[in-house]
Amino acid sequence: MPHFWNSGNVDTRRGLIAAGCLSAAVAIAAVLGGGGLAAQRAGRAPQAAAGDQAGPLWTLSSPLDDGRQMLLIVDQQNRSLAIYHVDPATGSLTLKSTRDISWDLLVEDFNCQEPRPSALKKMLEMPK
After folding, report:
1. With bands split at pLDDT 50, 70 and 90, how would you rate the model's confidence at 34?
2. Model-level pTM?
């Protein structure tokens, strides 16, 4: 039986490294996610998400054009998100952005095209 790691399949090795990094990032986020970063949770207590059966973290992995992976982690309790880039060649995980989305979710429409949600609402509320 040939040794898999030395088989010369660089793409497969990179995929395994990326999968391992993503798994590690999700595990780290699961451990740290309950409390969030100290700067993010200062002055507010976490709130449980209604109907949340799977836990407070939601994750999404997506390939980028340059071969890296983007990892998006949303903390439902703290209403914050973090975006990481994973380099499959080196296995490095780089934090690209974090944001508290609480206020974003209160905006009714932003960067929308016509018809805007408010116009649709008015159209639907018109008597027939």
Report:
1. very low
2. 0.51
